Amino acid sequence: VDGSSYVAGDNIDDATVISVGNSNSFSLSQLSPSTTYWVFIFSLGIGLDEETFSRGLIFALFEKKSVWVATAVSAISFGAFHLSNFRGGQELPYTIAQSVNAAAAGVLLAGLMIYSGSIWVPIVMHALWDFPLVTIKGLGHGHVQISWGDVMAQFFENGLMIAVGLLLVWFGDR
Q1: Which of 44, 74, 104, 141 fits as disulfide partner to 19, beta carbons 3.0 to 4.6 Å?
Q2: pTM of the model
Q3: Cα separations (Å) of 121 from 33, 58, 133, 134?
């Protein structure tokens, strides 16, 4: 949050770190308005970092081929990048689901960038997406039950993100 390293049990303002994933992931309890501000800044940093890499660098490298190729490669690499969370303590089934979801989100985020003409739109969207995830207690850590209902909801959500993202690419690339 503030450039410091934290471990479970450490305090950040009025909140307590309850789990640590990797360098970009930890969960907090008892958020105060001051802590909420810093967690949002942390989420904005994640969005800035990951979008600059995925949509700024990877997309730009493949855009010479076509926006469609750049969208696909940046989305797939974005999903693959999230596989590293397994090393940070997430269970494998959750990590795989998160990676597939991130790849689908990558299509949507690329579409937002193409349609808006600005990388700032996916950066802010990414931060708004990650903000509640960072603050949910224990998300992705410990034992996570994944039901068939979760799988179906994820399938629908991923399909919707891909469809909307592809429409944004289509209309933004004209």
Answers
A1: 141
A2: 0.77
A3: 25, 17, 19, 20
